[in-house]
Design goal:
Keywords: NADP, Oxidoreductase. With about 210 residues, the chain is of the alpha/beta class. The protein contains 4 helices and 11 strands, in the order ββαβαβββαβαββββ.
């Protein structure tokens, strides 16, 4: 059985995750970021693409407000060409790098080769099969737009946790989700809003997939 998949995204009002130059820290405020860490604590694994690693050098661990505790999830990087630097903050134990190349050592992270698609990127099916074999029952996708699009296109995103900041970044900003190649509205993936609540100056919206 595949993991339940949640896409967590922090954007501007117009759905951008970064400026035209890639600057993205921090779009949302501290309250939204704290809630994002709470979401990490309740997922078995969090996943990003290598572009997020190169742009933001994230830690993807759980850093909760004082008095709250929670476990760190398994950290997963999709890195078809093994571009993750050995000095990256994720290049350590507790990180799984999935690639379509012959594995090589990257810090103390675990590197595993999986099946690739026509573009040489890890297939969604191979990623989920590998994570399921490791006992992952809940997966949260945190970036970037192309990774999100691949799981959405496959119809595998069960829930969305959307943090929306009251700023505008414009059409040249980095989109929260890459192209879905939709020709008709009828083909668009549909979600039902479960809740919306203020999170500091931001808005936190929660959605579930319409079956």
């Amino acid at each position: 059985m595949r993991p339940k998949i949640t896409w967590k995204v922090a954007t501007s009002l117009d759905g951008r995750i970064g400026t035209s130059t890639g600057e993205s820290q921090w779009i949302t405020g501290p309250e939204s970021r704290a809630q994002g860490h709470r979401l990490r604590a309740v997922h078995d694994a969090v996943l990003v693409g290598v572009e997020t690693v190169l742009a933001d050098d994230p830690r993807l661990n759980t850093r909760l407000p004082e008095g709250e505790t929670g476990p760190d999830p398994l950290r997963v990087i999709l890195d078809s060409r093994l571009r993750t630097p050995s000095f990256a903050r994720l290049a350590k134990a507790g990180t799984l790098i999935l690639t379509t190349k012959d594995p090589m050592q990257i810090g103390t992270a675990e590197v595993v080769r999986v099946a690739g698609d026509a573009q040489g990127r890890p297939t969604v099916e191979a990623v989920l099969e590998t994570l399921s074999a490791r006992g992952v029952k809940s997966l949260m996708i945190e970036g970037g737009g192309r990774v999100a699009a691949s799981f959405i296109t496959a119809g595998l995103v069960d829930a969305i946790e959307w943090f929306r900041a009251p700023i505008l970044l414009g059409g040249d900003g980095r989109p929260g989700v890459a192209a879905l190649a939709l020709a008709r509205l009828a083909h668009a993936p549909r979600y039902r809003r479960l809740a919306a609540e203020p999170m500091g100056d931001d808005l936190w919206e929660r959605y579930e997939k319409v079956i």
